[in-house]
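Hi everyone, sorry if this is the wrong subforum. Our group has a chain we'd like a structural model of before ordering constructs, and none of us has done structure prediction before. Sequence below.
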Amino acid sequence: MRRSPFIGLLLLALAQGTVASPAGAAGTWTKAPPNPKTGGQAFGLWLMTDGTILSHGSALNNWVVLTPDAKGSYVNGTWKSVASSAYSRGGAQEHVLKDGRFLEAGGEYIYVYPGCSSNCAQPSGGSPLFKNTEIFDPVANTWTVQTPALYEIADTGSATLSDGRVFSSSRTAQSCQIFDPTTNKWTQAASTLLGNGDENSWAALQNGGILAVGYDTAGAAIYDPSKDKWIRTGPVPSGFQTGDAAGISLMFDGRVLVYGLGQSYIYTPGPTASDPGTWVLGPKMLNGDRAEDEYSNTLPNGKVWAGLVTVTFGPGVILQEFDPDTNTVKSVDPPPDKGNPYPIDYVNLPNGQVMVTSEVNDWIYTPDTPPKDEWRPTVSSVKFESGNTYTLTGTQISGLINGADEGDDMTMAENYPIVYLTDEAQNVYYCRSFDFSNMVPSKGNTPETCKFTTPAGLPQGTYSLFVAAVGVQSKSPFPFTVGVGGQPDGAGGTGSTLDGGAGSSTAGSVNTTGGSANTSGAGGTSNGRATASTGATSSSGGMSASAGTTSSGGASSGTGAAPDATGGGASAGAAGATSDATASSSDSSGCGCHTARSRSNGAATLFALGIAWLVHGVVRRGGRGGKQWSDGSRCGPAIALQHGTRCRRARGLWGESYSAVTAGRALRAHREARRHQVRHA
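Answer:
Right subforum, don't worry. Here is the predicted structure as tokens:
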């Protein structure tokens, strides 16, 4: 039984008597281009294999794509609308597939489905709608309904296996299942040891296994795909409790950070997936806060972020950073959003930056330190196949980490290489990669391969080729010739400019290797500003910390102008997005809200000791109390359903008619309604 959130906050504040230390400097924030369908944030961020970002538009069955500009800048990129899916769902599973398509399956809530486009009744428990599977083909720009899963998928753990199949649990039973994208069919797998998959957080490990952390006190288990077998992990620490599990974060050193109720835990896998591994206590969470049902992310520089809450399902109150080198935590500055700024969604971009979702806008973060060189992918050969298709061979091209994770509500692992080319004019050409030999993190010198196609209309000539894996770029340019491929020959490559983070380039620093003696190449443009590079031998570096200085890591770079901390190209990106919005049709269905935190218009908000208090027993992003969902949209009244005597469940869904502007402040329904869900033991 839950105590009153208001009383809980009061007791917590009195008991602790302390708040987090002031946030430390940690890179820079730049506003991302606004989603044309909402006028602000885009929620749900998935990196596609051509370097674009797939996200929700104005509803959960409405989709948009962000494409970086000709210089590789996401800050100056543009959004466009793509095909709508047949289903609108919250608490689903999403995976980028081996062939580059995008899978979305199941859903804790189904708001729109074939045969019902508005005023849809929520399917009853056990409905086959919770087994549905749909796939987006970005090349054909189509969604296709596939064979249903064997068991219900809703608020459940899942992960991609090394061979590209998707391993998934079930909400109400121990049953597990595997989706094969080559046949588009589901098969049964070994049953979990954690009771069921509800509220689970799963992560693919560097040893090929899958770590599953169960709900609250269920503990943890390891799945070995080679044996189709689960085993319990080594003993968890005394008092191990995760609540409504947050995303769990695989780190570059192979360990996994798991969030508990005021206490973190660290899991160290064994050498193989059949080894139970070991657990130790991690540091206490800042202020004794928690990350239940929150997003986490391992950044390209190795730091681990999570937005913490004071009470379960409460508003974000602090952005915590864990440093794996010191095993310590501290608070860092969130983006300067006009609403609740604490990120609830992340994606590591190929240029080394990180894109996040806040309440009002999306933001792009440039880390202050680069990745370590031993984390970087390498390229050993590129073989021409036919047409515009090539095969790339290298190491660590699937990455050493998974990237961002929310656990059960949303999955966004990035274990696939992003291939891009640069020319002497500092233009960036993203290729489309597919047919990956491995789709789990892999550390070491084991060769990995992928195929890729160059963009249509790519001019003939020679380029520098790079590969990025979960935001970490290859260090040295690989010479590539259209229609030939490439082999390492020691020759310098052409320069490259990316509006990226440490280890690539940022506004004011330019990756400009090439020529004899690895001297820097011609200057390019970065983030809309002209930059000039020197003719001196370049250092191994990336992000420009200040005018004329570079930090180590990444491709070789020249010195440049001071960084444009304000992201001068944002207005240009917005203009491009606005023009696209006029071409897209308005949406009037599928408006399941699944969005960022927004403070309620129906309850007073108090801030004390850095903790957001919502009175009247209302503690939620956007309001809670079984009356009205005040998120600025034309929402229908909340429907309160009594479930025994333990809790109330409010639907509080959007109305079926709304504008893109109001939708931009709402996009919320799943994350709002699901907070009232009765626990599935």
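For your construct planning: Helices lie at 5-16, 570-581, 660-664, 669-673. Residues 1-22, 490-497, 501-681 have pLDDT under 50 and may be disordered.
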